[in-house]
Amino acid sequence: MSEEATGLAIQEKDGSLTFPVRVVPRAKKNEIVGVEGGALRVRITAPPIRGKANEALVEFLAQALGVRKRQVEIVRGQRVRNKTIRVRGLSEKEARKRFGNFTTS
After folding, report:
1. What's the N-to-C CA distance of the chain in angstroms?
2. 76 is in which domain, residue-wise?
3. How does DSSP classify residue 69?
């Protein structure tokens, strides 16, 4: 597990996880670039117009974590780059392991 993945501020409660995400829209490719200030930093190709970046973020995180899109939701920050994400049905340990695969250099 990478140090970056362990620096992610994940909270586990009632069968779901919440964690902060910092989104960079209009990137060249969808990717997790690390952890910054306790938040997962994610680049998304979609523009921040009419919720397209949010939709792309949910889809990308679901794929990265190996869960269904309906298990991932944005609970705070619909219109800003700093967001809080909730993922249902995944343990903190498993999430850190899966994010570690992306944040390891």
Report:
1. 11
2. 3-103
3. G
Domain total of the chain: 1
Can you give the pLDDT at residue 3? 41
User: Predicted confidence band at 104 (pLDDT cuts at 50, 70, 90)?
Assistant: very low
Report the relative pairing of strands 39-43 and 16-24 from DSSP bridges: parallel
Q: In whole angstroms, give the CA distance from residue 103 to residue 99.
A: 6
Kindly report the average pLDDT of the chain as a whole number.
90
* Cα gap 7→74, rounded to integer Å: 20
Which residues have a Cβ under 8 Å from the Cβ of 18 and sit 6 or more positions away? 10, 11, 75, 84, 85, 86, 87
The Cα 37–Cα 13 span in angstroms is 22
Threshold 0.85, pTM exceeds:
yes
Kindly give, in sequence order, each residue whose CB lies less than 8 Å from that of residue 100, ignoring residues fewer than 6 positions away: 1, 2, 4, 5, 6
CATH of the domain at 24: 3.30.1200.10
The reported pLDDT for the residue numbered 6 is 59
